[in-house]
């Protein structure tokens, strides 16, 4: 009995078990990330996953969803889009200024509410210099002359020619992530006809 | 902790792999016999653990919420089994519990709780929300799937009573209530109540607090 113990500790079985379990964990992470990318639809830089939270998902989709969006709402309850890149694929950063331009009548259709929030790259809210953490359906958004709406995303206030104060969302100074949520998304979101406009870097 | 793992995942992985490479290198320098034993053990454990990690990942994730709800609570102390707690504040950068239940949601009040239905059904009561957006999500911890919703989308905003029963329960629900059959005895409950503005917070919170559970037959 004692001999077996000595053999186990000296032979490499323990190291093998540790290495095998760790490599399995890392592989599981890679598989979940890969499946997560496969079920993510990205349009104009904005990514959304529709499958998560639905009953009847397979083991891999369940695992990928639990990792990417744990206990998230089903898509027909709330549509979530995130992006860390502008429309040209460059990383969003507080060193630049961006505009999100909604053509006339193209704000996210919904029967609940919508809001746009900047977060740090992990997804946690950040302290805003304006005290406003988001813009959305309750904001007093000024329209351009053609009825379109520009939302300015930059750390410092844009000039007075850029519409209302509400049209400005203050962003963190470092790299950041944007999250847009539409609760009770409208039919155009659910059937895929609607897509968010790209985030455009202006300076 | 989660935040640190998310932020430093790559460097941590590189360090771990470097340690493994060093261990294997040391074994090789002692002779090939030990490496064979190590490799066989590693492959066997790997083949067993990989599907297990994938299969149990949703449960591990939801159990994180379970532990948080039952041990720490969401800012108001531990939340007993079969009770709901309404978080009085919306998420804020410094908000307590915000990092668990929500990121970037300053227009929702969250309600959380953990159900155990093995001893009998629970009745969820929701007040009249008068058109206000709200939802109560019921999540199966084994699959991390939302098997039912009560709320504006699915049941409307009138007051109502919903009987949640586990898979082993045989019975009939009282008149005037709606049955929701849960696939598991354990259920994660996440409620969300819309907050129009800072001035609306008080009313939203009063409504969120009225979303509550009672055992069937009390």
UniProtKB/TrEMBL annotation, chain B:
This is DUF1254 domain-containing protein. Keywords: Membrane, Transmembrane, Transmembrane helix. Residues 82-215 form the DUF1254 domain. The chain crosses the membrane at residues 7-25, 37-57. InterPro entries: DUF1254, DUF1254_sf. Pfam families: DUF1254. SUPFAM superfamilies: VPA0735-like. PANTHER family: BLL3101 PROTEIN (PTHR36509:SF2).
